[in-house]
Specification:
The protein is mostly helical. It is built from 17 helices and two strands. The chain has helices at about 30-65, 70-95, 100-115, 120-150, 155-185, 185-210, 225-245, 245-265, 280, 285-300, 305-315, 320-325, 330-345, 350-365, 375-405, 410-440, 450-475, and strands at about 5, 10. Helix 7 (about 225-245) packs antiparallel against helix 8 (about 245-265), helix 11 packs antiparallel against helix 12 (about 320-325) and helix 16 (about 410-440) packs antiparallel against helix 17.
Length: about 475
């Protein structure tokens, strides 16, 4: 395609909606850097918002005088909507333009942040948060795709490492800065500040990158039935896991599995499928790396939740002190991710990812031996080991997944990867909640329950350790493609 430099970014001549646009990695260096900046800032804002809102929930509950169940929907609505829209968003981005959809996601994120700040009731806030999830879904699937397309393969690992580092920087700073903002300025200020920061990510690409785009030729009509089947199935599974071991939870999980089977059956017959199953059949790397991602998030995502209970109930730490202990893990992950990205450019991604999973096994196994008087340095060390393992796993695994598909499928590949992450996080919390319900019960935790709580924490970490062992095997699958 005829392309020429342009002062505002990179101009693409004579591109129609039915033609592919820029080729991967052909942007000028300054434009690549700008793409990485907006993608990384977007990842930071999304994870910062998701991690900081939990700190604000008690203040929101006191302001609106609502129950804990109602408060849980402020976070759950955000997660459910974003998870349902991930696959459709990836397919739409491939057809209509990844940069265009990224800009839409940031505008939605900006508007909903300010709207949430002025919500007059809890029910309105829940609706605003659900709409906020639209921005999260579109931004999550397009930001990784933009980084992959902006950089050539030999420099992609380093760029992805930087992108992942900002994601975990948001996780790290969310509880700390979110707590400071809420304590001194109120919970509404949290949404206003996030909205103000997201304004940068709206103005910058529209100003400097308005002529940069990657899209693929349109296929058949959008797979609406596939979107409905996948969305309904994922919602049933996510909500079902949160209700286990109740009968309704088991029924919803079973219905979700049936729904996923129906979705996969339909995708083999759809004219332009939402999820191209050939990606799994033709590429062992894509299939097993996504499986490894699902296992990794299923076995590590509930770690902070479990350690928060352990430190506050079994060890008697205050919320603030426990927060400073727990922040060490995400800090380690954010610090090491860029370095691991550079390593993934020189060493086979599967070896780095597998080594990371092995380190996670050591850390999770160590946490399964935590006792009522275990030294705090030991807990911090094990927490940091798991986070270090995640740093060595996340970027190379992303590199392997995105590098195993053709350019026209990067949106779908990114959406599949993020869906695995979201489902894995929900499954991890579901397993932890199930063990707690079976060992401790669903009543308020009292001092007499502390020994049972410790038992449930240790048992859950042991389950996660076994899961992680299987993840090592999945991430070891080599880069050979089966055609």
């Amino acid at each position: 395609l005829p392309c020429r430099p342009w002062s505002g970014g990179y101009h693409v001549s004579d591109i129609s909606m039915n033609q592919p646009s820029l080729k991967p990695g052909e942007l000028p260096e300054s434009t690549r850097t700008l793409v990485l900046v907006i993608a990384s800032l977007g990842g930071f804002l999304v994870t910062f918002m998701a991690s900081s809102i939990n700190i604000a929930l008690p203040l929101i509950g006191a302001d609106f005088d609502v129950s804990a169940v109602t408060l849980s929907w402020i976070s759950l609505s955000y997660m459910l909507v974003s998870t349902v829209l991930l696959l459709p968003a990836g397919r739409i981005a491939d057809a209509y333009g990844r940069m265009r959809l990224f800009n839409v996601s940031m505008i939605v994120f900006l508007v909903m942040a300010f709207a949430s700040a002025f919500a007059p009731s809890a029910s309105v806030l829940i609706v605003m948060r659900a709409l906020h999830g639209i921005g999260l879904a579109i931004g999550a699937v397009t930001s990784t795709a933009l980084v992959v397309l902006a950089f050539p393969p030999e420099r992609r690992g380093r760029a992805l490492g930087t992108n992942v580092a900002f994601v975990y920087l948001g996780v790290t700073l969310g509880p700390v800065l979110g707590g400071l903002i809420c304590q001194n300025l109120g919970w509404r200020a949290l949404f206003i500040i996030v909205g103000a920061l997201s304004l940068i990510n709206v103005v910058l690409p529209l100003w400097k990158l308005r002529h940069v785009e990657w899209r693929e030729p349109k296929g058949a009509h959008f797979d609406f039935l596939g979107s409905v089947l996948s969305g309904a199935a994922l919602v049933a599974i996510l909500v079902g896991f949160s209700l286990l071991p109740e009968v309704l939870g088991a029924v919803l999980v079973a219905a979700g599995i049936v729904g996923l089977a129906a979705f996969l059956w339909w995708e083999t017959r759809a004219a332009d499928p939402l999820l191209n199953l050939d990606l799994f059949r033709r590429s062992r790397v894509f299939a097993f790396s996504n499986a490894a991602s699902l296992i990794n998030y299923s076995s590590t995502s509930a770690m902070i939740f479990l350690l928060s209970l352990y430190l506050q109930y079994n060890r008697g730490l205050s919320t603030q002190t426990a927060g400073f202990v727990l922040v060490t893990g995400p800090f380690v992950q954010a610090a090491f991710s860029p370095m691991v990205g550079r390593l993934a450019d020189r060493v086979e991604a599967r070896h780095v990812a597998s080594a990371g999973m092995a380190v996670c096994v050591i850390g999770l196994l160590g946490l399964s031996f935590a006792g009522a008087d275990t030294a705090f340095w030991y807990i911090i060390l094990m927490l940091c080991l798991v986070s270090l393992g995640n740093a060595f796993f996340a970027t190379p695994n992303t590199h392997a997944i995105m590098g195993s598909v053709e350019t026209r499928w990067v949106g779908v590949a990114s959406a599949t990867m993020v869906t695995m992450r979201q489902v894995g996080m929900s499954m991890s919390l579901g397993v932890a909640a199930l063990v707690l319900a079976l060992v401790v019960g669903r009543d308020v935790i009292r001092p007499a329950d502390y020994p049972h709580l410790l038992t449930s924490v240790r048992v859950t970490f042991l389950i996660f350790t076994v899961l992680c062992v299987f993840g090592i095997a999945a991430s070891l699958v080599g880069p050979r493609r089966v055609r």
